[in-house]
């Protein structure tokens, strides 16, 4: 088994937020939607079923934690959670905050509008808020 390496596309499309016991939490570089990725820090994973039973349960706990934190920080109306992996096969889970007035509502976010850059310091503030919220609930 090789050591964990983050897929270059995931790394380039996101910013580090925090490490949980199993997963790295990252913020997608798309200000259209507050959007987290959870990437289990284990090698050669493609599907959730590639994790052992204990790690599957841990991932579910981390998805729940990330969802709670994202909802609390953004006060979103809905959360979308998915593990698609059609373009990047490395196992990662999307946790996306949704609002009735976002550009893709009520459909999925993929391909509706081009990614929007965060304003200067906006991503840093959001990451700080997410880190503080994670520390409060752990």
Explain the overall architecture:
- It contains 3 helices and 5 strands.
- The protein is of the alpha+beta class and 138 residues long.
Task: Compile the SSE list and pairings.
Elements: H1 8-12, E1 14-19, E2 23-28, E3 35-40, H2 53-74, E4 78-82, E5 93-98, H3 122-137
Antiparallel strand pairs: 1-2, 2-3, 3-5, 4-5
State the gist of this model.
The protein has 138 residues and is of the alpha+beta class.
Number of helices: 3
Principal-axes shape call: globular
Distance between the termini: 30 Å
Query: How would you sum up the major sheet?
Result: 5 strands, antiparallel
User: By helix and strand content, what is the structural category?
Assistant: alpha+beta
Q: Share of helix among residues?
A: 25-40%
What's the SSE pattern? Answer: HEEEHEEH
pLDDT averaged residue by residue: 95
Radius of gyration: 14 Å
| Uncertain residue segments | none
């Amino acid at each position: 088994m090789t050591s964990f390496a983050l897929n270059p596309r995931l790394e380039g499309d996101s910013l580090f937020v925090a490490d949980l016991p199993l997963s790295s939490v990252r913020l997608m570089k798309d200000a259209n939607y507050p959007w987290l990725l959870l990437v289990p820090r284990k090698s050669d994973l493609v599907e959730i079923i590639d994790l052992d039973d204990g790690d599957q349960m841990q991932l579910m706990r981390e998805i729940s934690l990330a969802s709670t934190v994202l909802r609390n920080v953004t006060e979103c109306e809905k959360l979308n959670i998915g593990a698609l992996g059609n373009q990047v096969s490395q196992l990662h889970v999307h946790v996306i905050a949704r609002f009735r007035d976002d550009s893709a509502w009520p459909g999925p976010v993929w391909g509706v509008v081009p990614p929007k850059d965060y304003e200067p310091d906006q991503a840093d503030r959001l990451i700080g808020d997410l880190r503080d919220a994670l520390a409060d609930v752990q």
